[in-house]
Amino acid sequence: MTDDEAIAQADSPLDLTLNDDELEARREHITGFIQEQLDAAGAEKAVVAISGGVDSGLIAGLAADALGPERVHGLVMPSEVNDEETMSDAVRVAERFELPHDVIEVGPIVESFLEAYPEGGEHRMAAGNVRVRTRAVLNYLVANTENGLVVGTGNRTEALIGYFTKYGDGAVDCHPIANLYKQQVRQLARHVGVPESVAARTPTAGMWVGQTDEEELGIEYDTLDSILALHVEGDVPASATAREVGVEEPVVERVRNLYERSAHKRQVPPGPETPY
């Protein structure tokens, strides 16, 4: 098969946008999924960490749609690395969808960890992951108290490249938007009424001051989505993907490397086979 034939056979890899009918179908499918997850677990509530970003804004709206606002508990968990505008938007999301919510400062909790092991505070990534994992602990504290499930906010793009914290934002009971690329998340967020300031916000994991996803990754999300759809999931050769997307081939290879190196994050922790 030639490169052009491989591109032609890919499932609309560059046109990842959804039309209005498709957006509504995704909305109905995901809200049904959330309801099914709670019913299967016998859970009474969904717990959603609301960061002020588009992913959590979308989940907040979809969970409210699926269950009714009274069955969704929103948690806004700022630390010293989060700017005031983002946290204000997190509260706006909760209020937009009429969700009961709490604001819990994670900074003092994180500091207690770093005081217990000061060397960790000298490593930016390690300290950043402590912030994310602290939020996960609080999610489950609330969920266990209220017979709830922690509803995740991870999307397809970030899952494929491992751009999440293991046992942090990846520690959830279900991933309702796991099949949506980042640009589709933005589309659906606007469709369900997430505030525009949230839908258009530059994505950040909130791990350290000034951190943004695209700067850390070194690639824009729309480009990343296309490379993943063509090369990683569509099996289009790297050279053809690079030409089609308009990037250098090493960029495609780097995305492939991110996918392969992060495989452990998408799997159950391994154990040895039974020796007999």
Automatic annotation (TrEMBL):
Per the record, the domain of life is: Archaea
Binding-site list for ATP: A49, I50, S51, G52, G53, V54, D55, S56, T153, K182, T204
**Key word Nucleotide-binding present in the record?**
yes
Binding positions (Mg(2+)): D55, E158
What InterPro entries does this protein map onto?
NAD/GMP_synthase, NAD_synthase, NH(3)-dep_NAD(+)_synth, Rossmann-like_a/b/a_fold
Q: Which residues bind deamido-NAD(+)?
A: R133, K166, D173, H264, K265
One of the GO biological process terms: NAD+ biosynthetic process
CDD domains cross-referenced by the UniProt entry: NAD_synthase
Broadest EC class? ligase
Start and end residues of each NAD/GMP synthase domain: 29-269
Ribosomal protein found in the keyword field: no
Q: Name one GO cellular component term.
A: cytoplasm
Pathway annotation from the record: Cofactor biosynthesis; NAD(+) biosynthesis; NAD(+) from deamido-NAD(+) (ammonia route): step 1/1
The reaction(s) annotated as catalysed by this protein in its Swiss-Prot or TrEMBL entry are: deamido-NAD(+) + NH4(+) + ATP = AMP + diphosphate + NAD(+) + H(+)
Keywords attached to this Swiss-Prot or TrEMBL record, sorted alphabetically, are: ATP-binding, Ligase, Magnesium, Metal-binding, NAD, Nucleotide-binding
What is the E.C. number? 6.3.1.5
Query: Its Gene Ontology molecular function terms?
Result: ATP binding; glutaminase activity; metal ion binding; NAD+ synthase (glutamine-hydrolyzing) activity; NAD+ synthase activity
Coiled-coil stretches: none
Q: What family, per the record?
A: Belongs to the NAD synthetase family.
Q: How does it assemble?
A: Homodimer.
According to its UniProt entry, the function of this protein is described as:
Catalyzes the ATP-dependent amidation of deamido-NAD to form NAD. Uses ammonia as a nitrogen source.
Instruction: Provide the protein name.
Output: NH(3)-dependent NAD(+) synthetase
Per the UniProt record, the source organism is: Halapricum desulfuricans
Q: Which gene is transcribed and translated to give this protein?
A: nadE
